[in-house]
Write a structure and sequence with these properties.
Elements lengths: L21 H7 L3 E4 L9 E7 L4 E8 L13 E5 H9 L3 E7 L3 E6 L7 H16 L1
Antiparallel strand pairs: 1-2, 2-3, 3-4, 4-6, 5-6
Length: 133
Amino acid sequence: MLRRRREQPSGATAIAPAFEDFHAWVLSLPWVVERPYSVETPGIRCFGVDCEPLARRQVWLLTGLERQLDAHGLGLAVIVPADAAGDIEGAGLGRIVSPMPRGNALMAVSCDSLAGRAELETVVLSAYCCALS
């Protein structure tokens, strides 16, 4: 008997069950908004802080990058100050991809190196706190 493989629609990536609600969790954080991203790069989602009381408006999180290297399917990157980026890289939880304006760095988070959802949330919340400070 031949069995047909179920194919995923193009552009879709399977996300591990523990991470299925990740985007909803991110959007539940105060002052987090999803920002539009280029139509030439489908699947990438961009999140920022838009906090009028603190006069903060900054992109801090991207998902959907380098999915083939990420078993969880998130393809996560954060924007943090350069010193925090060094700490994250030193802990083996990510790598610096590019310098950013105002002394920040774009970090590719190594989701495969994380122990689980709680450790992922710790890295993400650290980037969120940096964006608000």
